[in-house]
Model the fold of this input.
Amino acid sequence: MTEVPAQAVAVSRAFGPFVAVDQVDLEVRPGEVVGLLGANGAGKTTLIRLLLGLLRPTAGEIRLFGEPPSRRTRRRIGYVPQSLGLYDDLTLEENLAFSAAVFGEGPEAARLPGPLRRYGGTVVGSLPLGIQRTTAFAAALAHRPDLLVLDEPTSGVDPLARARLWETVAGAAAEGAGVLVTTHYMDEAGECDRLVIMAAGRVVARGTAREITGDAHVSVVESGSWAAAFGALEAAGLPVALVGRTLRVPGAAPDAVRRALGALPATVTSAPATLEERFFQLTLASDTTKGHP
Amino acid sequence: MTAPGPANGWWGADDLSVRFGGNIALDHVSFRAEPGRVSAVVGGDGAGRTTLLRCLAGALAPASGLIRRPGALVTGYLSAGSGTYPDLSVSENLAFRATAYQIPPATAAERGEELLARAGLDRARDRLAGQLSGGMRQKLGVIAAMLHRPDLLVLDEPTTGVDPVSRSDLWWLIARAAAGGAAVVLATSYLDEAERAHTVLVLDAGAELAKGTPEEIVAAMPGTLTVADTRPAGEAGRRAWRREGRWRVWDPADARGNPSADASGNGPADAPGNGQAVRPDLQDAVTVAALARELARAGAAEESR
Done:
């Protein structure tokens, strides 16, 4: 049997009376990219810290490669935190050499990937964000980890650089690493084999983007005066979003939207919800059913 | 130089260049923001977005070109990363802004309460801004920038690193300001956000890479786009990038075909097969523009060897 890089079994973690992670099951298998989505406070970061062995669960069990988190399992993990974890006042080369040394790797692990070579002698703090992110990836991958944990890896990066970072992630997965990645950017969900959506500490949905979106629909309003329509829907207390010159209303049927618009001339149709819109429905539903502070 | 009023219907910049020492931060950039519309300025780190927005907000003087902006009292500006005072509470932040913009306290309190409630910040009004989550702090920053109902609202990366729920609240605030007649300019690195704007300017290394409505930018994309299950070998591989678990391959030479499928994820349920053409969206068009520029530079470097 192949060992599973990361496994959470009915894991909970409380801070005082506050339950940050509530009976979560999660598995990251070799060669698969799992996307972890959730609003701030949903419990993603706590779950990642549990998986990295930085926090102990108050209930349930974490297993890395079939055993409890330890220094030995840590050696097999590559981690890119949101803050990148680089030393701003060391050069790019020195950062990679240091990281390779920490993991007990030889100098070949500190070799710069092609696109980074021209920046090797530059202090990391003065490099553009895209280069810093590529460096953090290189540092996390140099010891060929079997589990890669990425916390919002592409925040603030332009589309082409973002596509290349995902190429690196896919390359690691193709070589057999399991990847757990958080993102706030729903467009990137398509890069993941599976998604897990958390809200208020719990898993509220899992599956592919298409499975999660299912047959959820939104109402779409087209009107000569979007501003007037926006005002009318807003006054009716409907959750309205502006997209170009059309308005999208999740969770409200076309009839209700038409009533709210009153005499305003507008066409109202129904359209399949996007993953982001479905995500809001799941998150908001979970907020009202759970009394978290 | 600075010219007054949108007499002809726009705020913005004409043929604007900005230099910092020997570096060209903006190179002959033109940009328009119209009342009641949302305009997005897109680009990665170092593209020149912040420089353009600072010029529009009156915080930076250009080396050459024309800036057309309203007076300081009718401009709202959220700078990147720091739009609030960390040592003041949420309410104090708004009260302070109201004083700076000369709004009567009662009016400011009424507007502030309404926006805070809608953005889910009303229960946080006594918390220090420095103790808010990133998303809450950005919402407060946008509310503070629009509290005086400015004619021009300039927001530098209001949604970077913000979770989707806060992002949705921020977009509501943005739409609210535009519905009230403000010209809204926002910088973002997210193209799905730019796609929601009325007009888009894409910057790369200080220069215009593409501009127009999202539809115009997509329509102006040269060549054709196909999808592939694996990265193509050889020359075509340099024109390929990863998207949604597969590869997009750009062919600059092809005349535009009539793609049978939309691969944007919102289209028909059947994904296009290997090698089939896809209809590009804004993200594809902008990636193609960046790729074309990169390939042209690489080609020029090879020739000069």
